[in-house]
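Structure ticket #2291
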Amino acid sequence: MASSTATMGNLPSGIGICTTIPDILYLPELIFGGLVWILVACTLVVPANPQGWVMFVSVFCFVMTFIWMLVFTCGGHHNRGSWAAADFAYHGIAAFFYLSASVALAKVTLEMKDGTKFQNYQLDISAVVFSYVVTLLYFVHTILSAIRWKSF
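Resolution: structure written out below.
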């Protein structure tokens, strides 16, 4: 006979965010997102529009992920299912933003291959690689957050 009891989801707090999936991904998201921010800030901003979008996305996601991590660390979510849904939504939006910023940065980097200093080109290549890594981290966090949200 099938069990009729459903397991209730659990949102971690305190040091538990460093030991649970998907919350363990906060730190790599912050580290690699900060690297994208720093690398794009170090380069020559030509053209300004796509790289401005990359800077907005990297700074916005860095700050919001840090705030999100603090809320989870302090237990401000009170283990409510709505916070699990918000976690899924935020990381989905962040993954979409980072994907759009990564594509824009890759396009700008390919276009500047011949016309700028080689050091700026190398910095942009590094920023593109790290922005795709961050996109992957946010995407994996989104999938794992969706699985956790469904357990509530």
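Closing remark: The radius of gyration is 18 Å.
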